[in-house]
Amino acid sequence: MSALLELEGVEARYGQVQALRGITLQVPEGAIVAVLGANGAGKTTTLRAVSGTVRRSGTITFDGKPLRGGPEAVARAGIAHVPEGRGTFTDLTVTENLRLGAYTRRERNLQADIERIAHWFPWIPERRHQQAGTLSGGEQQMLAVARALMAKPRLLMLDEPSLGLAPMIVREIFRIVKELNEQDGLTVLVVEQDARLALDTASHAYVLEVGRVAVAGSSADLERNESVRRSYLGY
Amino acid sequence: MADFMQQVVAGLASGSIYASLALALVLIHRATGVINFAQGEMATLSTYVAWALMTNHGWSYWPAFVATLVISFFGGAVVHQAVIRPNEKGSVLRVVIVTIGLLLFINGLIILIWGGEIRAMESPFPTRTIEIAGVAISIQDIGTIGVVLATVVALWLLFQYTKVGLAMRAAAVNPAEARLVGVRVTWMLTFGWGLAALLGAVAGMLAAPSLFLDPNLMAALLIYAFASAVLGGIDSPIGAVVGGLILGVGLNLIGTYVDFVGADLRLPVALAVILVVLLVKPSGLFGRTEVKRV
Fold it and tell me: Which CATH architecture has domain A3-233?
């Protein structure tokens, strides 16, 4: 399997603070890859470096081509980034959010796509005129994923989809992501605090510490790794 | 009663002009948090362009009107790209000061090209009145209201049903998120400045036939537009339209029936409206109080 996304020695900083100190990672086509680590380890910044919402250096290769430019260009290249804390337009309706998800596509008739989305999120069609801000936290997170899927992305990047949500909803979201991966072959790069859930879902994972990759490997290997278990899995 | 109704219709006519300019202010404020103090002068410049097309080049009103809308749209877009965008990285205050500079620049430019004298501008509507249910209503008033309403409806359709309209709204409410879905936010702002300039041009070209054209055509109108926008809620497009109409009718009725206000004290009344709304309900009639999530 070739890597769809490849980061090599990627660095990023916020003003004086260096958030990434040379990240190297690969996301193989058709895989789910998790990024774990404590707060401030650079998980979110790693995704932001890919999507171009933070100034970065180093090499990022997507589908064999160097990935450059701001988030608009990255979205056009086929990467959908669901940022931390619900990536929805709360002032707009559910349908408008979905239409915006498909913004980079030329397709004008989105009905078929919305039906495809409804397969994963059956509640969406009946709530289509509702303002996104009036949805529950879990629904907003699902809408954010649905919106990302509307772009028909080659790579889906999820930033802490579990943040502030009830465990049941979180498991539901991860189940859907896993199914999307298995049935549609969607490649996923997910940042997650809940290491156990992430390792259950992903085939590979990277553990970050202060802006560097501390440990990397298959999920099974990491689950057996002593220090990972103690630091992130709590047993 | 007939007289009262006449005053209401006349009020709606001037109110729709305020509404048009207020909508221009709201479009830009919503997207960038900036009040464009040059909006009025940009509209005056547009009106001079229309006037020049008619007077110097023999165009009739409507072709000149349409051509001016197109020119204004591109003019507004160029102003954003050339003048505003280089300053957008700074504070909001910096951009506001730049718009004040722009106001002075355009005002000077108008005087340089066309001089300071007062000019008559042809009206597209007959000054006759027609009688509806016993009320004599000026055709010019009805025409003015109709043109503004048509513009507002066209704009609403654009924002509601087109891809670019949706992208503009997304860029205004959440620029960071909009970029993530691939919206080129800066171009949406440029497009918004173009639309705002177009709305201003509508206001100017409708106002000039009755107010006469001079370099300060929009000075007072800008204050009325501010009052309308503040009354309706500075971030609410519907608010701008309703606020403009309420202000137009209200000022006209007060001017007619409250003796000491008359025609001279309307401007202070508009300023009082701004003051009272900001003190009592800063979000205006249709605005939402911003709640910041912590």
Answer: 3-Layer(aba) Sandwich (3.40)
